[in-house]
Amino acid sequence: MTSDDKNRLDRILAAAASIAGSDRDRFDLPRLRADAATAAELLIDLYGERALDRALLLESRPSATFFARMVRLEVEKRSQK
Asked: What is the reported pLDDT for 67?
């Protein structure tokens, strides 16, 4: 992984954390799903065929959240189409 990839992954994680944590007092599953779909689209746009590898990498990080898992599942679903 190059330093550009690492920086890009860090930016994606930061954006995901801010989206997922922006309203902690309410759990809004439909919104979380929509945000995960948006993040999955971003990964697919940035990495193409390697998007699933990147989603797995995001999910495997120690700071991974339920949101990271949702993003990975969404990338898998979109990659199978």
From this structure: 85
